[in-house]
Fold:
Amino acid sequence: MNLLAKVRNITYICKNFHHFLMINNTASLDLVEFVETQILPRYAEFDKAHNLSHVTRVIRSSIALARKIGADLNMAYVIAAYHDLGLSGPRAIHHLTSGKILMQDARLKRWFTPEQIKIMKEAVEDHRASASHAPRSIYGKIVAEADRDLTPETVIRRTIQFGLSNYPEMDQEGHWKRFCQHLNEKYSVNGYIRLWIHGSENERNLNELRSLIVQPAALRKVFDRIFLEER
Structure:
């Protein structure tokens, strides 16, 4: 996608997302304008699994969970918007880098106290699925849950997209092996993923995905179909 197409895509998504926020009376209007113009466009440079569509979905889910739980909507909104900005650097520490970016953005002082900014930084740091500890606040749990779209089709597609973007030298069999290893390490019954809000849609979807993981033939059919669509 060329630069002009990227700009048009960003403008379209942001306009529609802004309309969604206004209708649902969520985050402060001036805060939304700042995030849409200064933060969200940075996601256009990331891979398909972490692009603008991904972050807007995480924002929507975060706001819905925050409203359900009774958490601060502005805080949940900003946490979701910043949660993957660290992908501009090494992926392995992107959650820490994202937290640092949020903490060092002095513009946020217009809307939040130092204590709120600290809580948001920690929530961003805690969002990663492989984190060894539970999120330190309800905001960390919200973004961690919102970041996980565990619909089997979505998980499979994002895993394939990541592989194609980062390992272009691999053939289809190589991608299949990497794909299976990743799904087993992260999503199987012995995987490292943890959910923090019980009874959620993610919990139901994870159980469905796990049932597919233990059926290699069925899983391979889905993999082959999506791999050909994405290649």
